[in-house]
Design brief:
Beta Polymerase, domain 2, alpha/beta, 5-stranded mixed sheet, about 190 residues, about 20% helix, extended
């Protein structure tokens, strides 16, 4: 199925791109359920298998919600994507179309804060009771990063401890396996 064919199935408000052999259909949030239904029910598409649903923080563009659908008869997949605002992201649930979306939507609610209107069981799935944040958003601050600096924030040998005069002596730097000593090869300087 070509990008033009998918566009006729989901409607004129969508945009379709193809990268690396995978079709991605971007729809407005208001058309989320209608586009998913069309991809499942239209005889030209037949994306009847729900593979997964997740989201990612797209910074200023909001939270992007992505569902991957598969057509077993035609052996091809499609990504359906929409964006919702960070503050009050709401989409209609896909559990009426694919019951397997239940767990994925619960996880997306907890991790990104996107609510799925009409979800049959939106109870917490992974986080402890009373956890009031969305840990996979980019604005989420890890408590351990506040308590101590992250060691990967600097290159090895550039930690704040190395600047103190009372710091312990450094160990000899080891070269990675297979890398010869710089003085033993190459042009002499």
């Amino acid at each position: 199925m070509s990008a033009a064919d998918v566009l006729t199935v989901v409607g004129a408000t969508a945009s379709v791109t193809e990268e690396f052999g995978c079709l991605t259909v971007d729809v407005p949030a208001a058309d989320w359920l209608a586009a998913a239904s069309a991809l499942r029910d239209d005889q030209r598409a037949t994306y009847t298998y729900f593979d997964w649903l997740s989201a990612y923080d797209d910074l200023d563009a909001g939270v992007a919600v992505v569902v991957r659908l598969w057509s077993p008869s035609k052996r091809r997949g499609v990504l359906l994507r929409t964006r919702v605002p960070h503050d009050d992201g709401v989409l209609p649930t896909l559990t009426g179309l694919w019951p397997g979306a239940n767990w994925h939507e619960r996880e997306t609610l907890e991790m990104f804060g996107v609510r799925f209107e009409g979800h049959p069981n939106p109870i917490p799935l992974l986080l402890p009771d009373g956890f009031d944040a969305h840990p996979l958003r980019k604005d989420f601050m890890l408590a351990s990063r506040v308590a101590k600096p992250w060691p990967g924030a600097k290159e090895p040998g550039e930690s704040d401890r190395d600047l103190e005069p009372s710091a312990a002596p450094r160990r000899r730097r080891a070269r990675p396996p297979g890398v010869p000593d710089p003085g033993s090869w190459g042009p002499a300087s």
